[in-house]
């Protein structure tokens, strides 16, 4: 009798549905436990929403991680190859330069 009045007198429809789904297995203690756990869950969800709003961690404002990588790629590209020199200028630069014994590149030798 008290159990039925508790089910009918509940303001929250979700709690009422849970209590009705229990059927004949529902006792007064179990009804109180279900109502308390649902109330506790609602308070926890509300506090989590407050924290997520304060930190800005909402799913609507979050950007995917891939967006960062695509932003980096969209900048101006630098020229990676050195400027080409005319053959005459290259010949003038290499006069007097000899292949290095250590590295094999042409540059001024320190031997005199």
TrEMBL record:
Residues 62-112 are annotated as: Disordered. Residues 83-99 have a biased composition (Low complexity). Residues 70-82 have a biased composition (Basic residues). It comes from the Eukaryota. Residues 103-112 have a biased composition (Polar residues). This is Gag protein. It comes from Dreissena polymorpha (Zebra mussel).
